[in-house]
């Protein structure tokens, strides 16, 4: 069995030879990418914008605009999905050759549900971050209270020890 040695390091390792002595001697990292870029043949962008359903060629089943009642719309789409699933079951029993339209309708409802849920992600991220920060504040307050309590206990023990020493 033949074995090979490890390949030599890339030539840019020489840029870091003084790093341990002077960490500022290393080259600066490249600037972050902004705007569109190509990765593995696909186009991407650094803008975190949720594209609309109609931009993706999907019919939107809920009203457009910034003031969407998410709970109401998700409930309505969920009920519509249940109805279409029951209709699909009925069509599969009665007329199995005509199921394709029902499947397309169900797919459209799922895409709309998915898009509505994805539009709630920024709100969910904010709420999660707020919750995490509140927990951190609570833990720090508890730690401060614990330190104060231990300090008072240590002061009490020191007073007792001084009282015991003075009593001898």
TrEMBL record:
Protein's recorded name: Mediator of RNA polymerase II transcription subunit 7
Cellular compartments annotated: Nucleus
Top-rank taxon, per record: Eukaryota
GO CC annotation terms, alphabetical: core mediator complex; mediator complex
Coiled coil spans: 130-164
Keywords per UniProt: Activator, Coiled coil, Nucleus, Transcription, Transcription regulation
Described function: Component of the Mediator complex, a coactivator involved in the regulated transcription of nearly all RNA polymerase II-dependent genes. Mediator functions as a bridge to convey information from gene-specific regulatory proteins to the basal RNA polymerase II transcription machinery.
Xref: Pfam families: Med7
Any GO MF annotation of the entry: transcription coregulator activity
Subunit description: Component of the Mediator complex.
GO biological process: regulation of transcription by RNA polymerase II
Similarity comment: family membership: Belongs to the Mediator complex subunit 7 family.
